[in-house]
Design a protein that fits this description.
Blueprint (H helix, E strand, L loop, with lengths): L1 E5 L2 E7 L3 E8 L4 E7 L8 E6 L1 H20 L1 H7 L1 H21 L2 E8 L5 E6 L4 H21 L4
Helix pairs in contact: 1-3, 2-3
Amino acid sequence: SYTDKKPGFKRVYTLTDDSLLIEAKKWFGGSFRLEFALNKVKPLPDEHRIKDDTKTALVGLPGFIIFFFGAIAGTAIYEKTPIGFYLILGIGLAAMLFGFVFGGRIRVLIFKSREETPLFDVADRGSYEEFAAFTNELKTRISAAHARAGEK
């Protein structure tokens, strides 16, 4: 099984020989449970790298802290050195922008049906090794399910 977690949301993927069960829970009670027959899923998923809001916020957090510190202690810093005040604010803004623009990308595999209808996705949140092992096993079992059903 594989667990995809982010604050407020958790999906657990459980793999059997012939099916994939996805169970999800959100804070405040939202949940769902889906099961897919593996022989109905195309073996090769579409791969995307997308922005993840949670990861983006975490990457930009150090810049926000620097900027916030500069703004709160602004008067004391400005009295000692005006250049230092503007330097702290500038570094904080630059770090936030750098984090928001370049950080926070995650790898997502989108699995589709034979008719090209998106069925489910698996996102790389957490350990890359666990994600790679799970998705490789999932692709292998999908191919095996197609072979048992006598399909390509």
